[in-house]
Design brief:
This protein folds into 4 domains: 12-63; 100-208, 2-Layer Sandwich (Beta-Lactamase); 244-347, Alpha-Beta Plaits, CATH 3.30.70; 354-436, Orthogonal Bundle (Arc Repressor Mutant, subunit A). Helices cover 54% and strands 17% of the residues. The longest helix is centred in the middle third of the chain and has 41 residues, at 187-227. The strands form 3 sheets. Strands 9, 10, 11, 12, 13 and 14 form a 6-stranded mixed β-sheet that branches. Strands 5-4-8-7-6 form a 5-stranded antiparallel β-sheet, with helices on both faces. Strands 1-2-3 form a 3-stranded parallel β-sheet, covered by helices on one side. Helix 3 (65-98) packs antiparallel against helix 4 (103-115), helix 4 (103-115) runs antiparallel to helix 6 (187-227) and helix 14 (374-385) packs across helix 17. By secondary structure, it is of the alpha+beta class. 27% of the residues are buried. The chain has helices at 12-24, 43-52, 65-98, 103-115, 138-146, 187-227, 230-240, 260-273, 294-301, 319-331, 342-346, 349-353, 356-366, 374-385, 390-397, 401-415, 422-436, and strands at 2-3, 29-33, 55-59, 118-122, 127-129, 153-157, 160-170, 173-181, 250-258, 278-280, 285-290, 306-310, 314-315, 339-341.
């Protein structure tokens, strides 16, 4: 503001009120012209300007106010041209980022470089931060966006400013662009932030639609593998995941169960991190995964409150067989044992097919004649474990061979079975194993 001081306040109180009015009007500086009315800047004005932080400039009498106005206008015009040039360059860079293979992360990185601010895209599920920039914890960012209430906000604090802009829905959650800076943001930078928010909104919408198409193709791919049409399944897989390598010749089926919302969350996370055929049904999350990718996938599944059965590794054309073994393994899971593999239970395949309770009931009935006869049970166990080798049984029990033969004969008669019959030996093995599984 330029003033010749004509009609200026006379008292200290009036000068203070004058400076307060200038501050409320967002005047950044007062150019005070000394001359006929004031030979120098009033001391009361100096005091009030210092107290309120108003920039005060003394303008000599010989300096033309019109010339000052023109110079300021020229400076403002030059600044506007420079800002427009910088904004155009920034917008071009952001548009290029939006057309990259990973538009969300690239836009965030570019905006961080342009504004020199800590930048992140925040949802309830994940945080995409600019590379190389220190980012606050996910908890702090979530607390920040909760104050947004679907509207743009700017929070000021002694440590810097925080800007939050709503963008669009991402993976079923509201997404927000968050910037935290300790430096003042120029007007062209704020325009670049608005451009970024629009580009992120467009990219998020496109990403969501592509994800829907990919998941539909992925589910169809899994169905084709299970039906035995591996050739068509591989073609569908290449459409769903064009940048992924070909699927390994052997795969394992994973079946997960749990709360429907938890299954849906896991479905989206697995899709984000793995290029594998997967399908979400009403009560299952089904996945086909190469054996070398299994540890990482199971680690990701462990982040969710789900129980998972891992099937046998099979050739692609035998995917349905792996699915059946996965379902059997899933039956052995519990809230305290959330992941069970087929390999863990396949050493006792008959036990996997029959419930433990039913198996013990059957075994007690089969071995009823030996109930309480620990010597007979130990002898029969040694006989089965050595595959009927009398010499080895005698060595393990410390009995004479003839004694072993006599006692085994008595045991066979008591149980009403022929110990030389392979079927009888299988029944005996199953019964002894069932009673030991306690």
């Amino acid at each position: 503001m330029l003033t010749t001081s004509c009609g200026s306040p006379k008292t200290e109180h009036q000068w203070e009120e004058y400076v307060e009015r200038l501050n409320k009007a967002h005047v950044s500086a007062l150019a005070f012209g000394v001359g006929p009315w004031q030979r120098q800047v009033p001391r009361e004005l100096l005091t009030a300007a210092r107290e309120h932080g108003l920039n005060l400039i003394e303008v000599p009498e010989a300096t033309n106010f019109v010339r000052i106005s023109r110079l300021v206008a020229d400076l403002l015009e030059a600044e506007a041209v420079a800002s427009a040039r910088l904004l155009g360059k920034a917008q071009q860079s952001l548009i290029q980022a939006a057309s990259s293979q990973n538009p969300l992360a690239t836009i965030i990185d570019r905006l961080a470089r342009i504004t020199r601010a800590n930048t992140a895209l925040v949802t309830a599920e994940e945080v995409i931060s600019a590379a190389g920039n220190p980012s606050p914890s996910k908890r702090i960012l979530l607390e920040t966006v909760q104050n947004c209430q679907a509207a743009a906000i700017t929070e000021q604090s002694p440590t810097g400013d925080t800007i939050v802009l709503p963008t669009a829905s991402f993976k079923g959650h509201d997404a927000y662009l968050v910037l935290q800076t300790q430096r003042p943001l120029l007007s062209w930078m704020r325009n670049a932030i608005s451009t970024s928010a629009l580009l992120l909104q467009t990219s998020l919408t496109i990403t969501e639609r592509l994800a829907e198409s990919r998941l539909a193709l992925s589910a169809r791919c899994l169905e084709l593998f299970l039906s035995g049409d591996r050739h068509t399944a591989r073609e569908i897989y290449s459409l769903a995941y064009p940048r992924a390598n070909r699927l390994a010749p052997k795969l394992a089926f994973v079946a997960a169960k749990g709360d429907r919302s938890e299954l849906a969350r896991a479905h989206k996370q697995i899709d984000s991190h793995f290029s594998v055929p997967l399908k979400l049904t009403k009560n299952r999350l089904q996945i086909l995964v190469p054996s070398d990718g299994m540890p990482l996938l199971l680690s990701k599944l462990a982040d969710f409150d789900l129980q998972a059965g891992i099937g046998a590794v099979r050739r692609q054309k035998e995917a349905d067989d792996s699915a059946q073994t996965a379902e059997l393994a899933l039956k052995k899971t519990s809230p305290t044992r959330k992941q069970v593999t087929w390999d863990e239970i396949s050493g006792n395949a008959m036990m996997a097919l029959v419930g433990a309770k039913d198996a013990r009931l059957w075994a007690k009935d089969f071995l009823a004649a030996a109930n309480g006869n620990d010597e007979m049970l130990s002898l029969l166990d040694a006989f089965i474990s050595t595959n009927g080798n009398i010499a080895q049984v005698a060595k393990e029990t410390g009995m004479h061979r003839n004694t072993v033969r006599a006692k085994l004969g008595a045991a066979g008669r008591a149980l009403a079975i022929n110990l030389d019959d392979p079927a009888a030996r299988a029944q005996l093995w199953f019964s002894l194993r069932a009673l030991s599984e306690r």
